[in-house]
Amino acid sequence: MKKSVLKIFSCGLLATLLFNSSVVFATEAKNENAIQMMMESEANNSPENVFNFSGEWVESSVETTTKRLYGGNNTGRYETAVAISKEKWANGSDTIVLVTGMDYPDALSATPLAAKHSAPILLTENKKLPQSVKAEIKRLSASNAIIVGGNGAVSKEVETELKAMGVATRRIDGKDRYNTAVNIAKEIGTENGIAVAYGLNYADALSIAPVAGKLSMPIILTPSNYMNEDVKKFIASTEINETVIVGGVGAISYEVASAFPNPMRIGGQNRFETNVNVLSIFGNWLNYDEVYVATGMNYPDALSGSAAAAMTGSPLILANAYEIDDNTTIYANFLRAKKVYGLGGQAILSNEVLSYIGEAAQYFDIQNIKSKPVTINKNQFAILPSAVFVLPDGKTINQALPKIVEIQWQTEDLVIDTSIAGEKIYTGVVKGHDINDDKYKVELKVIVK
Question: Whole-angstrom Cα distance, residue 217 to residue 29?
Fold first, then answer.
């Protein structure tokens, strides 16, 4: 990852998402007053220029729809992965990535590998392929399977079953989860940097997985308080420009984080805040037409969904069965999605939570966007944002949450030239629309002084 890209991260949405409590839906009641109070408090303490854009919010003919992808009660994780594969790989896939459905260590680094091969992630039992997975491999017409993990995770018997189906197999494994992650990283490459997550839990790795897949960043796992020897050798022998550390100092200590090249930490007070902070800071690389929602309290559904999310660069939001962290609530309100996918059954992701996020992420047709001038210091690094906050005309952040709108700027170089003082007008268009349609044209005045 180029150094200039890392600087963009600090310009993300993180400053507007500094909340740490929960909305509980056990009785289907939403603590909206508390959220509103926090919104107003944050707005009163935010710089005036955080929200530079406003526009007309028009009810769209495009209705935000929610769809649950899930399996049965007894073998749900395997069939949920199959349902995701059927939905997002409807036309088949030459390659699948196969991981154990029984534990998470080897699987945590699989998403960027799946993204590299445009492949779904399917789950298997240790000793045999579930029938639903077999049927899906046939439907996909897959001819190659990449098995992640050793024989203790995915046995040779499973490998034999695949070969009997006419599927060529190869295995990426290691002596432990850290070595497996390193071996996957060697295949993906480190040109775009690496992501580092705590290896003894799954939540932080799941948060970064779709982003890492989209950006071709391998996920390296680490213990909390020391550097694994295989990881240490890999770091020493590999050119790595940037490192994204995912999780707080309780997950990855300061000493361990500092041992990686050019580390930048993205954390939070809990897994849900970390999830939102990851999505916010990498907002410039996300596509908001589709949103995925999965439980943050277990790994299989989010893991399978992360491969689909990586394909389209979509946010993967973590939630609890009957509870949404307030960071998540506010982030969901920023979105204007056309489709919201819920991953897994109601026992792990309730209808109330899925419906609330679907309603919060309601799609509006936003037109006639106006912007305030942006002032930048001479020689300061700056880049045109691919996604901006747009408030309803006449409203302040105290009165309404903005929506994220993706902008396509009419310039090949998104880096703003700040070497010379002066003013410049940049022209863009709301993603998906014609630059000649004035309703969707966006102009931004940049003042360098």
Answer: 40
pLDDT at residue 19 greater than cutoff 70: no
Boundaries of every domain in the chain: 73-173
Given the structure tokens 């998540």, which residue do they identify? 328
pLDDT tens readout for residues 67-119: 999 986 555 899 999 999 999 999 999 999 999 999 888 888 999 999 999 99
- Residue 1 reports pLDDT greater than 90: no
Burial of 381 (0-12, 13-18, 19+ CB in 10 A): middle
Strand 53-59 and strand 364-371: the pairing is: antiparallel
Q: CA angle 317-319-323, nearest 5°?
A: 145
Q: Token pair 């962290």 is at which residue? A: 325
Distance CA 433, CA 121 (A): 33
Residues 314-347 have pLDDT tens digits of 999 999 999 888 889 989 999 999 999 999 999 9
Contacts of range 155-158, beta carbons closer than 8 Å, 24 or more positions apart: 155/126, 155/127, 157/127, 157/128, 158/98, 158/124, 158/125, 158/126, 158/127, 158/128, 158/129
8 A C-beta contact, residue 336 and residue 362 = yes
**Token code pair at residue 65:** 């729809």
